[in-house]
Amino acid sequence: MPSFQLADRIKALPPYLFAQIDKVKEEVRSRGVDIISLGIGDPDMPTPDFIIDALAQSARNPANHQYPSYIGMLAFRQAVADWYKTRFGVELDPKSEVITLIGSKEGIAHFPLAFTNPGDLAIVCTPNYPVYTVTTEFLGGVVKYLPLTDDNDYLPDLDSVTSDEWRRAKMIYVNYPNNPTAATAPDAFYEKLIAIAKEFDVIVVHDAAYTEIYFDPANKPRSILEFPGGKDVAIEFHSLSKTYNMTGWRIGMAVGNPTLVAGLGKVKENMDSGAFQAVQEASIAALQQGEPYAEQFRAIYKERRDVVVKALREAGVQCRNPEASFYIWSKTPAGFASSAEFVTKIIQETGVVLTPGNGFGAPGEGYFRISLTVDSERLKEAVARISSKL
Ligand SMILES: Cc1ncc(COP(=O)(O)O)c(C=O)c1O
């Protein structure tokens, strides 16, 4: 038998966080325990019917059965540009400043291939969505982490990076509303980041996947492209996944600086063949008519947030009351040596699946994340089960 060796870069990967949790979950489920899964950030509500109807109609068009364009249909990119104009007041040229993605994860993962050489530095705010670091590390790049903590209100200390490091840095990854901490960023943060990025020619990668899950309409999360100079330095990744409950559809977009968008396009041209056109056409409908539905989803998440924050606090668990996203970032209760120990005990003894904070990076130790992706009654039940073990 031949013996096939994985490449060193794959051997060096830590196990994907959710795969590990799934293993424990399956073991518990096999014992007949009723699982309440608050682990992964995957909306439980279905995609609105009008989007499904649009897909069904588009799927019947033979023109959509052929290879799509790798950068996406112009009609979809135009719909993205129109949506950015309406939502953020940002002008985008659909031809050069918008690209279709097969979900934003795909674009985030591919992006460094366009701009990173071995030895280049990427600055990553952490705890973080794990995909930010993977490709840089595959490419022999170096990652510098900037911790997000309660003390800095989950905003990276940009002054802690030396001028020399800024000069070496190729890109910095920021994500607001943030996964996993649910933090949001004030205007002054973006303004400062853009100024530094301009001074040192650093690419800002802004992951904006959660901008539409907010709870105060007077304080909506912002696109980095709204700020003067944003388009000079930034590429912003966005997605229909969380806004319209479309995680399974695999559709997203990258927008912003045309050189950065074109670089990503070059990679995609060589690595994939674009998103199914019927999905793009259904997504045009979502972007054009989805706002009333997004509003309903926000109301549901708000109610769930209120239920969980109240119940956790009554149980003596400290947590943030987030203004956006569908996550609750909570302190691991006293008496547990680590977040992983706490989370493992809770899964094994109650069937409630949580995510240990350090799974998103070392500064997440001492915290756990709850996803508000089950209904309020189940959330109450979940927190009651957790409290019974404290
Ligand atoms: C912060 C963040 N960015 C991006 C994504 C990827 O979303 P998608 O690939 O479905 O667009 C996720 C998914 O969980 C996420 O949490």
From TrEMBL:
Designated name of the protein: Aminotransferase
InterPro entries from the UniProt entry: Aminotransferase_I/II_large, DAP-NH2Trfase_DapL_Desulfo, DapL/ALD1, LL-DAP_aminotransferase, NHTrfase_class1_PyrdxlP-BS, PyrdxlP-dep_Trfase, PyrdxlP-dep_Trfase_major, PyrdxlP-dep_Trfase_small
PANTHER family on file: AMINO ACID AMINOTRANSFERASE (PTHR42832), L-GLUTAMINE--4-(METHYLSULFANYL)-2-OXOBUTANOATE AMINOTRANSFERASE (PTHR42832:SF3)
Residue ranges of domain Aminotransferase class I/classII large in the record: 34-386
Family affiliation: Belongs to the class-I pyridoxal-phosphate-dependent aminotransferase family.
Source lineage: Bacteria, Pseudomonadati, Thermodesulfobacteriota, Desulfovibrionia, Desulfovibrionales
Key words, A-Z: Aminotransferase, Pyridoxal phosphate, Transferase
Record EC number: 2.6.1.-
GO molecular function: L,L-diaminopimelate aminotransferase activity; pyridoxal phosphate binding
HAMAP family per UniProt: DapL_aminotrans_1
SUPFAM superfamilies, alphabetized: PLP-dependent transferases
Pathway(s) it belongs to: Amino-acid biosynthesis; L-lysine biosynthesis via DAP pathway; LL-2,6-diaminopimelate from (S)-tetrahydrodipicolinate (aminotransferase route): step 1/1
Catalytic activity: (2S,6S)-2,6-diaminopimelate + 2-oxoglutarate = (S)-2,3,4,5-tetrahydrodipicolinate + L-glutamate + H2O + H(+)
GO biological process, one term: lysine biosynthetic process via diaminopimelate
The protein's required cofactors: pyridoxal 5'-phosphate
Enzyme class: transferase
